[in-house]
Write a structure and sequence with these properties.
Elements: H1 6-23, E1 39-45, E2 55-57, H2 61-66, E3 77-78, E4 83-85, H3 93-97, E5 101-108, H4 116-125, H5 129-132, H6 137-144, E6 153-156, E7 171-173, H7 188-198, H8 205-222, H9 234-248, E8 255-260, H10 276-295, E9 302-308, E10 327-333, E11 360-361, H11 362-374, H12 378-384
Parallel strand pairs: 1-8, 1-9, 5-11, 6-7, 6-8
Antiparallel strand pairs: 2-4, 3-4, 5-10, 9-10
Amino acid sequence: MISATRRQFMAGTAAAVTAVATAQVAGARAAAGAATGGTLVHVFLHGGLDGLSLVAPAKDPVLATLRPNLLLGSDSLPLPRGFRLTGAFKPLASYLGSGHLAFIPGVSDPRISRSHFQAQDVCHLGGLPGETDGRGWLDALVNLLGGGTVLRGVAIGATLPRSLVGTGNAAALTAVDSLRLDGDARYADATAEALRGLFTGIDHPAEHTVRSALAAVETARRVAPPADAAGYDGAAGAALRQVARLIKGGAGVRVATVAVGGFDTHENQGTGPGGYLYGRLNDLATALAAFFDDLGDRRAEVTVMISSEFGRRVAENGRGCDHGHGGVISVLSGRRLAGPLLGAWDGLAELDNGDVPEFTNMFDVFGSVAQGRFALTTGEVQQMFPHRRFTPIELYA
């Protein structure tokens, strides 16, 4: 039997409260086990990625005229319909060749402006704040998927993105190891049990918060330390490494989010080898390849969607690009995709006020990715985006 002094117990209690705050765990009513169906990982690129520096119609005369210094280099990779993929994504070439990596160009929504803050809100909420009551679309997805572990919805970072804010009780954590009870390890079990008893049947919101935090701590204890794996460098790699730990450790993650900054390229964009954006994209591709390699057979149950708040204008400006529309969404999936270049594309002959036109709606892509990953009905997807009619697009083979 483990005993503890009052001072030791109070120290453990304070540490538990700190763990609750650090983990950003909001009162989850977790079921006994996670539902089946795999995991969706949403990687959000803050700043507005220039989609034409990722994939572009190589022989489109508009590009040669309007952005002569930002064309894709000779190391770019061929895609269907005359498109090329930046050479920065070569770390993912094997997944491209096997049919597990795809790109959807010309993606936007009429409600998205050129303001970072407004556009990010629309992307995270699945519509305008007044249309969604401030609830994130990924929170709605987590609820559609039903009960699971306390970590069924998780953000890797200090705070929850608005996409996971709502009633699904998602958790935010910087690392799996941050979910712990600090203090003398000899009293960890006794402290957890005492806290569980103290916060049971008290008819107070703190009951759900503390018990959820304790459940998260217990889940994290069962997750094995990360194996050494190449390519997990940088912010994106560090975050995806934590997601891989949770998935491989059986934490029951259904939806995970990762935020990566640094894509607001107004000047000195550097689309070719040695350039700034080329390096950012190469870091991202390297991290994604390490993540999928690390998952091994578990990758069959995982889909990664990479998006940004908007694209950028077609014309260069000081060898950079200003805010625009018509961005690119990338999908890396353990389930085979319908092709490497998906969605509609009608060329750049008629620009949308200088921007890439919207050929595919953003939320049709979001909904189709989730629908294919979790076998949702069209009616269920419609619940995530209640103020627009969802039209599925063909993504999976």
